From TrEMBL:
It is a multi-pass membrane protein. CDD domains: MFS_MefA_like. Keywords: Cell membrane, Membrane, Transmembrane, Transmembrane helix. InterPro entries: MFS, MFS_trans_sf. This is MFS transporter. The chain crosses the membrane at residues 23-45, 57-78, 98-129, 170-190, 233-258, 264-284, 296-314, 326-344, 365-387, 393-412. The keyword Transmembrane helix applies. It comes from Actinotalea ferrariae CF5-4. It is found in: Cell membrane. The keyword Transmembrane applies. One of its GO terms (cellular component) is plasma membrane. Pfam families: MFS_1. Its main location: membrane. One of its GO terms (molecular function) is transmembrane transporter activity.
Length: 428
């Protein structure tokens, strides 16, 4: 009787879940390092290495290329691995790749090809990290806490997106970009140490139950494509990422060369914009209850595309409204709706999928939705060279809004609750 209040607290909040806290701490340091890297590498490429739009497109493509190349087999491999160990190794590999960049820059040997090579290595490690991470959470916290766990992890990412760009932009005024990149090596190593403190017993499939890799990969893809609602969500996310990567490849050039911000100003814009993502993570569960956990998916997809359109308007309205203000409004609204969308759709996927298939399902989804990103990055580099940076951002904004059609024109717009595994239809 005396332990009932503590048990209730454990059931109502993952803040009292020891293993989740270690995952949370590791995720916090990893996300902070990732956000610093995402800010500093493009700035270093543009300002120190004089990168062209095409080179920035190639760098953007390299950051996600592995999802297209090895995304599918990674899921089957992860389902055969201990996921905690996979997370730790991925952190160490990313730290090593960035350490090489720092060493080369210190020796005066840095180049765009080196940055692209490092981005490719980090991309490969991130494939395994992300697939293992999403597959690890349900078994670690239990199905009843999936939404809470995802919301807390999304909130952590959003806090990192707020703090890291502001800190990074300010530090770039007093230290060099390579020195700042060096701090990300430390954050990844701290993340690996925190993950190593998790004490959770993983049950791996028996070796004799394994089947050919091709068969296991096909099972993951088959699960994704045979679920009508999941199929539409994946289509929406993939198209949105395609056009988002067109814009993402050019945003640093747009802000520094077209709008005229400096590095610190760009970092501040990114930081204030990310506050929207933090609020989205905090409000995701409540909005799902208000709007409906199914209906919130098309609502957030449409709203995200519309708010992104403020980005190319920044240069047009600069004589009326400061460009920094417009960029912050665009980033704030877009980040908010993206996080709300992600919490809803990731939670649906995790709840719907059998535990033994989670790695392959997540890898199949990532192959489709992140595999479009390197293509978008290359398209962004080509469009920025062919028609200019600002017009290319308009292409990105219009494309992201239209990408919402698969979910906006689906049963999701009329449903309030998402189907459970036992009542989800399996045919279109």
């Amino acid at each position: 009787m005396t332990t009932a209040p503590a048990e209730k607290r454990h059931r109502t909040s993952l803040a009292f879940h020891r293993n989740f806290r270690q995952l949370w701490v590791g995720d916090a340091f990893g996300q902070f390092g990732a956000q610093l890297t995402g800010l500093v590498l493009p700035i270093y490429a543009v300002t120190a290495l004089d990168a062209t739009p095409w080179q920035m497109g190639a760098l953007t493509a390299a950051e996600t290329a592995a999802f297209l190349v090895i995304g599918l087999p990674a899921g089957a491999w992860v389902d055969r691995m201990r996921k905690r160990r996979t997370l730790i190794v991925a952190d160490v590999v990313r730290a090593a790749a960035l350490a090489v960049v720092v060493a080369a820059a210190t020796a005066g040997a840095a180049s765009i090809p080196l940055l692209i090579a490092a981005a490719l290595v980090i991309s490969a490690a991130t494939v395994f990290f992300d697939v293992a991470h999403q597959s690890y959470v349900p078994g670690l916290v239990g199905l009843d806490h999936i939404v809470e766990g995802n919301a807390k992890l999304q909130a952590t990412q959003s806090v990192a997106m707020v703090v890291a760009p502001a800190v990074g932009g300010a530090l770039l005024r007093v230290i060099s970009a390579p020195a700042l990149i060096g701090t990300t090596v430390v954050t990844y190593l701290v993340s690996a140490m925190a993950l190593g403190r998790i004490r959770h017993e993983e049950v791996l499939p028996r070796r004799e139950d394994r089947r050919p890799l091709r068969t296991e990969i096909a099972e993951g893809l088959h699960f994704v494509v045979r679920q009508p609602l999941l199929r539409r969500i994946v289509a929406c996310t993939s198209l949105s990422n395609l056009f988002g990567s067109i814009g993402g490849a050019l945003m640093v050039i747009y802000a520094l060369r077209v709008v005229g911000l400096d590095e610190a100003g760009l970092g501040l814009v990114f930081s204030l914009s990310a506050v929207g993502g933090l609020l989205g993570a905090v409000a995701a569960e409540r909005m799902a209850r208000w709007v409906g956990e199914a209906r919130i998916i098309p609502v957030s997809a449409v709203a995200g595309g519309l708010t992104y359109a403020l980005n190319p308007l920044a240069s047009t309205l600069s004589g009326v409204v400061p460009a920094e203000v417009v960029l912050v409004l665009a980033g704030f609204g877009f980040s908010f709706w993206v996080v709300v969308y992600n919490v809803a759709q990731v939670s649906f996927r995790q709840r719907l999928c059998p535990p033994a298939l989670l790695g392959r399902m997540n890898a199949s989804v990532r192959f489709i939705v992140w595999g479009s990103m390197p293509i978008g990055g290359l398209l962004g580099g080509w469009l920025g060279t062919a028609v200019g940076v600002a017009p290319s951002l308009w292409v990105a904004a219009i494309g992201m809004t239209l990408a919402a059609l698969p979910v906006a024109l689906s049963p999701l717009r009329t449903l309030t609750a998402l189907p459970r595994p036992d009542d989800e239809p399996t045919t279109a």
